[in-house]
Amino acid sequence: MAKLESILTPELLSEVLSVWYGHVSDGSSVILPSQDHVKVWFSSSPELDSVCVKSFGPVLDAIKESGVTSGQQILDAAKPKGPLDWLSLVLLLDQMPRNCYRGDASSVVYRLFDPLAQDVAAAASEKGIPDLEPQTRWFIGRRLWFYMPLEHSESLDLHRLATEKFASLARDIELLISDNDDPSSLIGGDDELRAKAARVLGASAESAEAARGVAKAFAAFEERHSDVIERFGRYPHRNGSLGRASTDEEIKYLSEGGETFGGGNGHTH
């Protein structure tokens, strides 16, 4: 793991955040990302792909060549010191590979990086980082990424957990909106971040509804993923990349416009 320790540095983790949030202009937008912000993250962009390949392709290749088999090995090498370091690792393992390995190269995303990301996200959840740490809990544009590895899984149990996590996010959004109506209890310490988030979400009826809309959209997207896993036990659109034989039902499903979540258009999902 010595080689990984020399690669997974604090500087690298900082660069991950700089690249991923490069289009987000201010802290308020990390609390409540706009549709345009979200679109950049979830649409295939040659520009973003190019930046990710240049900045993180060598790092991902080094992880691939290191023989690493668990997220704990990644954590031992990176030694994350705070919530944002944990966020960087989840992004590095779950999102960056999807921008760096597309098309025929995508099998490594599913075989290697997704399990690593799931391990790291699970460890983060055990420590309460997404749901309890103020730097992540009250920032929708940070918190949601800890749940993406669950959504990318082909485990129905992890999808059930993802459903619970997105429901928890929706509850916290309602909490923030109600906080803005009575902010007097939020004074000092960690409550300052909660109060800031409450002001952003409760600034207007439009912002409150936008926040609710984000939570609803991500919950619905997870439900679509979960439905596929419940029906097939896997994502049929990944079969080609993974060298899996498709069943007749899967072939029929995909030929009739079944869900690929962008994976059928050169995207990696």
Automatic annotation (TrEMBL):
Record InterPro entries: DUF924 (IPR010323), TPR-like_helical_dom_sf (IPR011990)
Pfam families in the cross-refs: DUF924 (PF06041)
Protein name: Uncharacterized protein
Native source species: Geosmithia morbida
Lineage: Eukaryota, Fungi, Dikarya, Ascomycota, Pezizomycotina
